[in-house]
């Protein structure tokens, strides 16, 4: 089995692949101990572990040590690179580009083989423009729905409501008639506006010869304004396999 990990600031997404490279399990945990527990429960023999991390070097090293000591497996970790999988890093300081963004771009370009706009809708929202020649032209970072919601709750004293109210509020996008509706629907509309703007920018740049990729937990919130986009939940893992091939 191959264990794949996407280690974010808040959560660790994991996936198990069998010898045929088919997914046989996946999930999300919020700490290293929970990850070890869930893999132990599956009683699987790991032949390889590969991971991409946006955590600090010390946090990443601690996780790698735990996995290698617990499961007697070697971990391959994505490192910054100027070029990978036909994509050229567009940052002036290439090592400063978030590694999750980097492998998502590589994964998208491997699928598209032409110009593509890659939008990851998670805690933060990122967009990246990759030309037909694989040149990364740059991108944008803005708050996602979780961050927008948290900021409103933190800095506006009367903005308080529970998870059930939040869920019910998203059944519509009409003007809100409660605080929950106003906040939740407002955040979604801001998200959709950002995505629409990014697609319009890509159209100005490339006309019609490009693909749009959506990934991340909130991708479903914007599909109505990007009906032709390709929703690829495992885009980071596709790029991770290119960065850390099977040994």
From TrEMBL:
Which SUPFAM superfamilies does this chain map to?
A: Actin-like ATPase domain (SSF53067)
At which positions is substrate bound?
Answer: 91, 98-101, 179
PANTHER family in the cross-refs: TYPE III PANTOTHENATE KINASE
- What family does this chain come from, according to its entry? Belongs to the type III pantothenate kinase family.
Which residues are named in the active-site annotation? 100
Q: Which UniProt keywords apply?
A: ATP-binding, Coenzyme A biosynthesis, Cytoplasm, Kinase, Metal-binding, Nucleotide-binding, Potassium, Transferase
Q: Which reaction equation describes what this protein catalyses?
A: (R)-pantothenate + ATP = (R)-4'-phosphopantothenate + ADP + H(+)
Reported function:
Catalyzes the phosphorylation of pantothenate (Pan), the first step in CoA biosynthesis.
In the UniProt record, does the keyword Metal-binding occur? yes
Question: Which Pfam family, giving just one, matches this sequence?
Answer: Pan_kinase
For this chain's record, the cofactor binding note is: A monovalent cation. Ammonium or potassium.
User: Gene of origin?
Assistant: coaX
Q: Which cofactor does it need?
A: K(+); NH4(+)
For this protein, the Enzyme Commission number is 2.7.1.33
Entry GO MF terms = pantothenate kinase activity
Q: Where does K(+) bind?
A: 120
Query: EC top class, in one word?
Result: transferase
Q: Which residues bind ATP?
A: 6-13, 123
Pathway where it operates = Cofactor biosynthesis; coenzyme A biosynthesis; CoA from (R)-pantothenate: step 1/5
Name assigned to this protein: Type III pantothenate kinase
Q: Which InterPro entries match?
A: ATPase_NBD (IPR043129), Type_III_PanK (IPR004619)
Q: What is known about its subunit structure?
A: Homodimer.
The protein's location, in the record's own words, is: Cytoplasm
């Amino acid at each position: 089995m191959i264990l794949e990990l996407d280690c974010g600031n808040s959560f660790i997404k994991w996936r198990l692949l069998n010898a045929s490279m088919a997914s046989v399990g996946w999930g999300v945990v919020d700490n290293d101990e929970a990850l070890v527990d869930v893999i132990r429960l599956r009683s699987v023999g790991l032949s390889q572990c590969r991971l991409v991390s946006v955590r600090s070097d010390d946090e990443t090293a601690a996780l790698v040590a735990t996995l290698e000591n617990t499961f007697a497996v070697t971990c391959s970790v994505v490192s910054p690179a100027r070029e990978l999988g036909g994509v050229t890093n567009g940052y002036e300081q290439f090592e400063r580009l978030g590694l999750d963004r980097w492998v998502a771009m590589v994964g998208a370009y491997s699928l598209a083989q032409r110009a593509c706009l890659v939008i990851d809708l998670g805690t933060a929202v990122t967009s990246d423009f990759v030309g037909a020649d694989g040149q990364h032209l740059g991108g944008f970072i803005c708050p996602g729905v979780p961050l927008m919601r948290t900021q409103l709750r933190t800095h506006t004293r009367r903005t308080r409501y529970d998870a059930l109210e939040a869920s019910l509020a998203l059944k519509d996008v009409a003007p809100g008639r409660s605080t929950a509706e106003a906040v939740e629907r407002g955040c979604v509309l801001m998200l959709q506006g950002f995505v629409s703007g990014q697609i319009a920018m890509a159209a100005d740049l490339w006309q019609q010869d490009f693909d749009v990729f959506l990934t991340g937990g909130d991708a479903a919130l914007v599909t109505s304004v990007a009906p032709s986009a390709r929703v690829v939940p495992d885009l980071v893992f596709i790029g991770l396999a290119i960065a850390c091939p099977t040994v």
